[in-house]
Amino acid sequence: MTQTSGPIVFFGNERLSTGFETTAPTLQRLITAGYTVAAVVTNYEAGKSRSVRPLEVAAVAAKHGIPVIVNKKPGAIIEQLRGYNAPIGVLVAYGQIVPQRVIDIFPHGIINIHPSLLPLHRGSIPIESAILNGEQVTGVSLMQLVKAMDAGPVYAQQQLALNGYESKQALTAALLDAGSTLLIEHLPAILSGSLTPTPQDDSNATYDQRITKEDGILDWRKPASRLEREIRAYLEWPKSRATLGAIDIIITKSHVVKANGKPGNIVIIDKQPVVYCGEDALAIDQLKPAGKKEMTGEGFLAGHKSTLNLTT
């Protein structure tokens, strides 16, 4: 088992995309590999609401007797962080800018797992953006944290080929697994100083617009291929919402059909509801009507066919 010359401070909650349900694999793999984790610092408080998911990293930390510090301003706990005498920090989805004076506490800095092939997709939605853009390759970067957003030099990267069917949840899990593997592989060399990071080419940097709740409203004037990607990218949040007939629904799975008609009109093809789009049409495989459980498109038709104002 590997040991560091001192403990590690872990920053973040490992939720790399909105709505992602993590098992905190990076924190668990650090512990399994024999690293001592002095503390977990997160800006997310689980709260008491039924709708708020318990914090997975907190559960892992509690299991191993690791203290959890909930703090939205890490600059306010500098003395506490210094007290750990940690040579390095590891950050996975912290969600806030970490001040340089906090980074400087650690002799080897803070290592960040970022789910894109930097300098592409800097910012908070690299996973959603890779799906929305229909990219064939994405990946994960092991980066030295700096104050500027996702601009630090990179220690290592791992590419991941995409097949065009990934959901946000599945892609996030795959990238987090790849990132934690990359960290465990290269952390000893980072700590020994034998691995130095390579500066990013800022001229090739791309930044993505933040997703809003309104982005989840499906616009049937768009090509069906674009809407199918939105449905995969917006799972859990902001969710892909539409109205079929007079029924509000959330679409969770779909596929493109080669058919043409007036955007927004509904037909039945192979026992599924199909909506014409600006280009081709979208077959609804699975959906969730307001106030009901998720069901298949065929199951939805069985109870609502008469309300849909179908196109003949």
Would you give an account of this structure?
With 312 residues, the chain is α/β, with parallel strands linked by helices. The chain has 2 domains: 8-204, Formyl transferase, N-terminal domain (Rossmann fold, 3-Layer(aba) Sandwich); 213-307, Methionyl-tRNA Fmet Formyltransferase, Chain A, domain 2, CATH 3.10.25. Helices cover 24% and strands 24% of the residues. It contains 8 helices and 13 strands. The strands form 2 sheets. A 7-stranded mixed sheet has the order 3-2-1-4-5-6-7, covered by helices on one side. Strand 2 (37-42), helix 2 and strand 3 (68-70) form a beta-alpha-beta unit. Helix 5 (126-132) packs antiparallel against helix 7. The protein is elongated and about 70 Å long. The N and C termini lie far apart (67 Å). The model has no long low-confidence stretch (mean pLDDT 92).
Secondary structure elements and pairings:
Layout: E1 8-12, H1 25-32, E2 37-42, H2 56-63, E3 68-70, H3 78-82, E4 88-92, H4 100-103, E5 110-114, H5 126-132, E6 137-144, E7 154-161, H6 168-192, H7 224-233, E8 240-244, E9 247-257, E10 266-269, E11 272-276, E12 281-289, E13 295-296, H8 297-304
Parallel strand pairs: 1-2, 1-4, 2-3, 4-5
Antiparallel strand pairs: 5-6, 6-7, 8-9, 9-12, 10-11, 11-12, 12-13
Helix pairs in contact: 1-6, 5-7
